[in-house]
Amino acid sequence: MNNTAYLQMDMLRFLTAGSVDDGKSTLIGRLLYDSKSIFEDQLQAIEASSKRRGDEYTNLALITDGLKAEREQGITIDVAYKYFATPKRKFIIADTPGHIQYTRNMVTGASTAQLSIILLDARKGIVEQTMRHTFIVALLGIPHLILCVNKMDLVGYSEEVFEIIVEEYKQLTSRLGIKDIQCFPISALKGDNVVEKSENMSWWKGVSLLEFLETVHIEEDIDLNHPRFPVQWIIRPMSEIYHDYRAYAGCVVGGIFRKGDEIIVYPSGLKTKIKAIDTFEGQLEEAFPPLSIALVLEDELDISRGDMICKLENPPKVEQYITAYICWMDTKEFKTGNRYLLQHTTNSVKVIVDEIHYKLNINNLEKINNVNTLALNDIARISLKLSKPIVFDDYQTNRNTGSFILIDEATNNTVAAGMIREKELLK
After folding, report:
1. What is the CATH number of domain 317-420?
2. How far apart, in whole angstroms, are the C-alpha atoms of residue 133 and residue 127?
C-alpha cells in the first residue's frame, strides 16, 4: 500500500452514544481538553459559559453542545462532529443524541463510523437506551464497540460494580454478533482512564481509553476480498491530445484492482481487462478502498453511471427484489404500496414497498408483527420490488454495497436508511 492509503487508514471515525446525562459530551470534551486539542480562546469561552450557568467546574460538555437548545436543556439534539489528532492518529467524533426521538440522528452519525463508544452511568447500570444504542450499532455493522462505564467516581471506583455491569452487558449482547466488544471503567468528569490511566483504580490492568483508540486495528475492517468499483462518471475529454481517451471514474469500495486484471461489468456481464489505473497524481499499479481513481479498460464497452466493475472472483448479487432493515426518517407514514427512489452506490432505481415483515422494539429486541405502517424513527425489516436489478453484497460483507437510502421523489427528501441483510440480525 502507498503512503496515501496509510494516511487514509490512520483516520478513525467513532461515535458516542448513551442515555441522557451519561456524560457523552463531557467525555468528548475531556478527550479534546486532555489531548490539548482546544484553543485557548475556546477554553476561555467555555469557562465563561460555565460560570454563567452556575457550574462549579469548567463544563467540558459545552464544547460539543453547540446548539442553543442543547446548552439550555443540557441535552444533545443534533449530531455534533468534532476533530482532533494525536501524534499516533487522527480522529473524527460524532456525538449522537440519547433520546429515542432522535434515533434517526444516531443512525446518520453511525453510518460511517468504524467504532462506537456507548456510555452508561455506573450508578444506574444498563438501561433501555443502552440496549437501543447497542442494537443500532449491531444493525449498522460497526465492527468495534466500547462500553464505557462512566461516573466511577460516584461508586467509589468499585471494581465489583464494574464487573457486574460488564458481565450483564456481555450476556445481553451475545445475540447480536458484534465482533469486538471492549469495556472501560472511566470518569469523564474527573478524567480517570480517559487520556491517562487512573490512580484511583489500581485494579484496572488495561490501557486508557485514548491509548486504545490510538492503537485499535481498523485496517482489517476494510473488505479486500470482494473487488467493487461503482462507476460514477465517464471521462471522455474532447481535445486533440486526448481524443481517444476514455476512463471510468469512481471510488473503490471493496477489494484490490491491479493493472492487467480481468474484470466483469455488471449488470451487462461484459468482460475485459484493466489497461491503466489513473489518478490526479499519476498512474497506480493497484487500487483499493477508499481510493478515488479512473479505470482505463482495454476494450470499449457500453458502461454508464451506476454500473459496477468487479473481478471474476467473489461475484456480487444481481437481483430485482431485496429484503432489508430500514430506519424510517420521515414524519410521513411508511406503508406497503408506497413508491420511492432507491439510491444505491451511484445507481438510482424506482422501488415499491412490497411487505413490512415486522417492526423492532429496540428497547427489548422483540419483533412486532402484523405492522402495516412505520412512523418516524421506527426500525423494521421490509421487502422492496425494484424497477430494475441492482448489483449488491450483503451488508455484513460490504457496508458500501449493502446499504442504500430511500428518497421521496415529490420532496427530494431522504426518508430512510437501509441495510440489505439476507439473514436476520437477532440470533
Report:
1. 2.40.30.10
2. 10
